Amino acid sequence: MIRGIDGVIKGRNTMDGAGVKLYRVFGGPDTVDLTDPFLLLDFFGSNKVEEYINGFPWHPHRGIETVTLLFEGKVEHQDSLGNKGTIYPGQVQWMTAGSGIFHQEMPKPLEGTEIPKYNQDPFLVRGLQLWINLPSYKKMTQPVYRDVKSVPKEKFDFGEVSVLAGEFAGIEGPVKVKSDVDPSYIHVKLNGDMKLKVKEGYTVLAYVVDGSARFAPNSPDIGKGNLVIFTREGDEIKISGNASFIVLSGRPLNEPVAWYGPIVMNTEDQIIEAFDDLRKGTFIRHKEILYE
């Protein structure tokens, strides 16, 4: 059965970090029921250096996973335990914050990139950051880093598909998340018609990065900057058009959400505990980060 569209969300321009200009596709208590288990999706991209160069200085996370996919430029990152690295175009950092971590992410143009005059295209830095909720029993788990240097991709007669997590046409993503969420993350560059299998009852979302496409039979064209929310019934989606988009799917947690800034837990008491930990210097519960 082919899924229909339950709704379309248009994002909003905002700022975060140390003045980084963002396009917030979704995020916050108003959308969490619609997008469960996905909490937030930000598009960051600019050809104006001053709109991103101050980056996202040191900040904490607890209770979530963050996934940074880079299209242009680079992002230098490091954490409070001395780990550091750089994400380049086509690469991904998938971080399970779990019980708590401090880190920073600093977007920059690639070395040797000429800054365009008059702030014209192309973008110097461009990418997406996704927040995924952790189930209650994983909220205080040991933090995990997954630095994905190469995402499997393959060309088809309808375009190109990259698989970060999950599976498409026998291509398996390198990220294997061991939680009830069972997330899938696929990037498609479409020029034609395609079908994509999804799991019954899972939340399925599509965000249009560029171009436009029809995401269900008889649907209108949905263009750049829009998030498509599919109905929960059905095991397949059908997409036609000329667009670049990501498809996310995951099992809804259906758990209470208590959210304050970069910390997402299940109860207000857990949020208070997290901020008490920050004040006391006991926020970091694990002294090592796992690598997968």
UniProtKB/TrEMBL annotation:
Residues 187-283 form the Pirin C-terminal domain. InterPro entries: Pirin, Pirin_C_dom, Pirin_N_dom, RmlC-like_jellyroll, RmlC_Cupin_sf. Residues 20-132 form the Pirin N-terminal domain. It holds the Pfam family Pirin. Belongs to the pirin family. This is Pirin domain protein. It comes from Saccharolobus islandicus (strain REY15A). The lineage of its organism: Archaea, Thermoproteota, Thermoprotei, Sulfolobales, Sulfolobaceae.
